[in-house]
Write a structure and sequence with these properties.
Blueprint lengths: L2 H26 L4 H9 L18 H14 L1 H20 L2 H8 L5 E4 L15 E5 L2 E11 L7 E6 L9 E6 L5 E3 L14 E11 L3 E2 L5 H38 L1 E2 L4 E2 L4 H29 L5 H27 L10 H12 L5 H12 L10
Parallel strand pairs: 1-4
Antiparallel strand pairs: 2-3, 3-7, 4-5, 5-8, 6-7, 9-10
Helix pairs in contact: 1-2, 1-3, 3-4, 3-6, 4-6, 6-7, 6-8, 6-9, 7-8, 8-9, 8-10
């Protein structure tokens, strides 16, 4: 399937499944199971999986377009798929063929389980432990937020290494592993339907073969295989939110009227200026994301810099654009029927996902100063 064919198939799923359920997903905090099943059946969960295992083998530009388009309809569904693609990147690099084939075939949903209680938003600091237990490995951890918690078929999980003092090791932990549980439900401000909840592992047992890569190599895999996808796709989700908010604010400005003046809201120069600013910022973000995807696909020298910049730029721009949308809508924007307030909430939820803008600003500054992302000056 070509990139355009994949996007055409996606349009049908959005119209038939995602959009009709988007309000319920948000208002009830309902996991978008029907959407995930439809995306899996269409092969879109295997979008970045290798053709060797039955996947589409498509790259960052197409994945970015898919996430942006889903986010225009439902931010929660876009986040679930984004985290699935991020986990897939690690599994494609180091996972077993059975799991890779299941993902490519659309029957397996995965996600990341990096952030931990005690490390705050510094996901690269691992608190959970792993210890040998006979023919298996025993994991203990308190994960603060896991997208698709209890819904995913597997979790790309971080722990301290079995041996040595390296930062972390990655594991592919199956859903339902003994000792693994969702420790609380989520009822929050934005991205309400992606089942982002804390999870705990208390003596959770996994096979030794569940290790992804080498013991102690988790941070290298996270930085090299996962982080670029995570950054790009989070930025793409923010872009989709911006496009949705801009479209809704424009439609509202054209339809809302000052009856005593016989004019629409769009007749006000201030309203048009705000709409123009939304368009400027959204299009600037789109251009930067496209350049980031191109840098990833061509292994350009500045690819990591672009990757680190992308989420920070898109997240901050989404805050501005959705704030402007709320101002254009005024009191009406606080009603759920217009839909702007959901974009406003979703943008804020996306902005606080680690690595935060503050952390990314530090990373970019480190690259500019010739320093490693983590640790002391080289």
């Amino acid at each position: 399937m070509t990139a355009q064919q994949a996007l055409d198939v996606l349009e049908g799923i959005i119209g038939d499944v995602i959009e009709p359920r988007a309000a319920e997903v948000d208002s009830e905090g309902t996991f978008p199971r029907a959407a995930i099943d439809a995306l899996g059946k269409a092969g879109l969960l295997g979008l970045i999986s290798s053709p060797d295992v039955g996947g589409m083998g498509l790259g960052p530009s197409t994945a970015s377009a898919v996430i942006e388009r889903i986010a225009q309809a439902c931010g929660s569904t876009a986040m679930v798929v984004s985290m699935h693609y991020c986990a897939t990147a690690a599994i494609e690099a180091h996972g077993d063929n059975a799991t890779r084939t299941a993902i490519a075939g659309g029957s397996h949903l995965s996600t990341l389980a990096f952030s931990e209680r005690g490390s705050r938003s510094q996901f690269w600091v691992t608190m959970g432990t792993a210890r040998a237990g006979g023919q298996s490995v025993v994991l203990d951890a308190e994960k603060s937020w896991v997208t698709s918690a209890g819904e995913a078929d597997s979790y790309v999980w971080t722990s301290k290494p079995l041996d040595g003092d390296a930062p972390s090791t990655l594991w592919l932990v199956p859903n339902g592993a003994p000792g693994l549980k969702v420790s609380a439900s989520f009822d929050g401000l934005g991205l309400r339907g992606n089942a982002s909840s804390p999870m705990t592992a208390v003596g959770a047992s996994v096979a030794k073969t569940a290790m992804l890569g080498a013991d102690g190599g988790g941070l290298d895999i996270a930085q090299g295989a996962v982080l670029p996808w995570f950054q790009l796709l989070n930025a793409s989700m923010s872009l989709g939110t911006m496009e949705a908010a801009t479209a809704k604010a424009t439609a509202h400005a054209a339809s809302a009227r000052f009856e005593h003046l016989g004019q629409s809201l769009a007749a006000q120069p201030q309203t048009r200026a705000r709409l123009a600013r939304m368009r400027f910022v959204t299009d600037q973000t789109r251009t930067f994301i496209a350049d980031t995807a191109a840098a990833m696909e061509t292994a350009r020298e500045d690819a990591m810099l672009r990757v680190l910049e992308s989420k920070a730029i898109a997240a901050e721009n989404a805050l501005e654009v959705t704030e402007l949308a709320m101002r254009i809508g005024g009191g009406a924007a606080f009603r759920k029927d217009i839909g702007i307030e959901r974009n406003f909430r979703d943008a804020r939820a996306a902005a606080v996902m680690a690595p935060t803008t503050d952390a990314l600003s530090d990373f970019v500054g480190r690259i500019m100063c010739g320093m490693p992302l983590f640790g002391e000056v080289a």
